[in-house]
Design brief:
The protein contains 19 helices and 16 strands. The protein has 511 residues and is of the alpha/beta class. Strand 12, helix 11 and strand 13 form a beta-alpha-beta unit. It is elongated.
Length: 511
């Protein structure tokens, strides 16, 4: 039976333009989706924007523009990342304007009311507008938000609350047994520690006055709007038609083998605790995988819209190329730990790997086929053509399994390193086989009988070496496709036809 997988990213606030941190998660999700499709799975890849935040109201006030205009402008910029980052998402939802969203948020709200899990309560707490989150005093760093470094404001009002405490035992069991898989393990342990410390019921609405009327009204209570995180988390099912019980929801949520959320470490509790509890209350299936990445930094500080430390992925792709940006995000960012970004690191990795390693391999191989065989690939161009290419042929057989194992473990650096074994082995193979020497030996066809025999042997070996090198390039075109689809397509165009086109650079050096 064909595996069915639903892949989703978090949906960012749109109070400013996208930055490279957003690109990291989008590219990671894109790789998982492309790789799953490549191995024959049915995939639905969704992303979008979180429109209903107080941050947007404040940003619009600062600009002197209507909130909806600001949100629409920035949401369009996020949607437009598809081109510069070569993304393959199937759906893009904007929670402030998509007609699918509000009915779904209202449906899950009413279902939780019927379950007895929502109630009104007067509340006072420390609230960070940047996080759209209440904090306990013990969670602050010297009285400041651990994410934004700002002092939270004291908020006192009557809100609707969700009975999170009711689900503490179930959530602990789900996470500790792996039925709800959280990777890496350190993040699972962090979520378990959060549960073990005691789960307080949490506020899920804001007064319409404090929200400036921006947000989804609470059903039956026009004086309140839904807390932005409540409505935002619903996007994972609202986009599938949950509000109307549509076929998309039945196919991709109820009917999926895996429901995969990608997210940054700063929103772990919302996705590993709050969202599963909401689904438990509503009687709906939970995500199967919660995959958590750490942060990108500049000079050790988190890349963020509010912090001022940012990097524009569109500008970077325009200057250095989409493949260079994607490759740095996948090859350099570790599975655990933050990664510091500089343009020098990006160009260094692109020039060393894509231009110097992959580009050189393809260029020299295609050039030799043209020089020695008139551009016609000998035989069937199989990597097994030369019996002396055992290491290379073995890697081409093993690497697909290694890539899948690494991606199943949510380790993109290990996955790209596995593919790179083929590049390194193919370049070593060409140096050892020395086809240029075989070509010189083949040219001695008009000598005595002994020389003619040696020339024939050299010609046969040269055929095998060229076919093997082409076979390795063809293998790379397939294995690199989820990671750098543009470069992979160029490798395929250069090496897959039986008669090769004129040599063109697969990847030029970047300055």
């Amino acid at each position: 039976m064909t595996e069915r997988i639903y892949v989703s990213t978090t949906i960012p606030y749109v109070n400013a333009r996208p930055h490279l941190g957003h690109a990291l998660e989008l590219v990671q999700a894109d790789v998982l989706a492309r790789h799953a499709r490549q191995r024959g799975a049915e995939v639905w890849f969704q992303t979008g924007t979180d429109d209903n935040s107080l941050k947007h109201v404040l940003a619009a006030q600062a600009e002197g523009v209507p909130v909806r205009d600001l949100v629409s402008r920035h949401a369009a910029e996020f949607a437009a990342l598809r081109g510069p980052l070569d993304l393959s998402f199937d759906d893009f939802i904007q929670t402030g304007s998509d007609p699918r969203h509000r009915p779904a948020a209202e449906r899950i709200w009413r279902t939780c009311v019927a379950r007895g899990d929502l109630y009104l309560r007067q509340y006072e707490g420390l609230y960070c507008v940047g996080c759209e989150q209440f904090y306990r005093p013990a969670e602050l760093n010297s009285g400041r938000c651990p994410e934004h470094g700002t002092e939270p404001e004291v908020v006192s009002e009557q809100n609707w609350f969700f009975r999170l405490s009711r689900y503490a035992g179930t959530l602990h069991e789900l996470l500790s047994t792996g039925r709800l898989r959280v990777e890496p393990a350190a993040r699972r342990n962090e979520a378990l520690a959060f549960i073990a410390a005691g789960l307080d019921d949490f506020s899920i609405s804001r007064s319409t006055q404090r929200a400036h009327g921006w947000g989804i009204p609470v059903p039956g209570d026009p004086g309140q709007v839904m807390y932005v995180w409540w409505d935002a988390l619903c996007n994972y099912i609202s986009s599938l038609g949950y509000g109307a019980g549509g076929p998309g929801y039945r196919r991709w949520w109820l009917g999926s083998d895996r429901r995969v959320h990608l997210l940054g470490k700063g929103v772990l509790r919302f996705h590993a605790v709050y969202w599963p509890a909401m689904l438990l209350s509503a009687g709906e299936p939970l995500p199967t995988d919660v995959l958590v990445h750490d942060y990108l930094t500049i000079d050790g500080r988190k890349i963020s819209k509010s912090g001022g430390d940012t990097a524009d992925p569109v500008a970077l792709a325009g200057e250095f190329g989409t493949d260079a940006v994607r490759w740095w995000l996948l090859r350099e960012v570790p599975r655990v730990g933050d990664a510091d970004f500089t343009a020098t690191r990006l160009t260094g990795r692109a020039n060393a790997d894509l231009a110097g390693g992959l580009g050189n391999l393809v260029s020299r191989t295609v050039a030799m086929v043209h020089r020695y065989r008139g551009g016609v690939v000998p035989g069937d161009g199989a990597v097994t053509a030369d019996p002396g290419a055992g290491e290379l042929a073995g890697l081409c057989l093993r690497v697909p399994g290694q890539v899948r194992e690494a991606l199943d473990a949510y380790d993109f650096r290990a996955a790209t390193a596995a593919v790179w074994q083929i590049v390194a082995a193919a370049n070593r193979y060409i140096e050892r086989a020395a086809p240029w020497r075989l070509a010189r030996a083949e040219a001695r066809r008009d000598g005595d009988i002994g020389e003619t025999g040696e020339a024939a042997e050299a010609a046969a070996r040269l055929d095998a070496v060229l076919a093997t090198a082409i076979g390795a390039c063809r293998c790379l075109a397939v294995q690199l496709a989820p990671f750098v689809p543009g470069a992979a397509a160029r490798v395929a165009a250069q090496t897959c036809p039986a008669e090769l086109p004129a040599t063109e650079p697969v990847f030029a050096r970047v300055a």
